[in-house]
Amino acid sequence: MADFELSESFIPALHKPSSLLPIARHREALLYLIDTFPVVIVVGQTGSGKTTQIPQFLEQAGWCNDGKIVAVTQVGWLFNQV
């Protein structure tokens, strides 16, 4: 892991370990749904871990084996690009 300096804007009270994020308790259910259905839409509050944790769940479950790539985007971002 690379060394880095925490900037003055880093606020430790706002940093949560990934296991404490709301999405963590839904890990197994999310992996089941993603395995079962071709499209899964996840809705949750800002900061719940949707964008940061789901790709990690997929990588840990072997979805990135054999050169496969997991991509995550936000619907609002997509609509702004069209």
Could you explain how this protein is built, in words?
The structure is a single chain. With 82 residues, this protein is mostly helical. Helices cover 34% and strands 0% of the residues. The protein is built from 3 helices and no strands. The radius of gyration is 15 Å and the shape is globular. The mean pLDDT is 80.
> Which percent bin holds the helix content?
25-40%
C-alpha geometry: globular
- How many E-type strands? 0
Task: Give the ordered list of helices and strands.
Answer: HHH
Oligomer: single chain
The largest pleated sheet is described as: none
Kindly provide the radius of gyration, computed on alpha-carbon positions and rounded to a whole number of angstroms: 15 Å
Mean pLDDT across all residues, rounded? 80
Number of helices: 3
**Which ranges are low-confidence, i.e. pLDDT below 50, for 5 or more consecutive residues?**
none
Please report the distance between the alpha carbons of the first and last residues: 37 Å
Q: Strand share of the residues?
A: under 5%
By secondary-structure content and strand pairing, the structural class works out as: mainly alpha
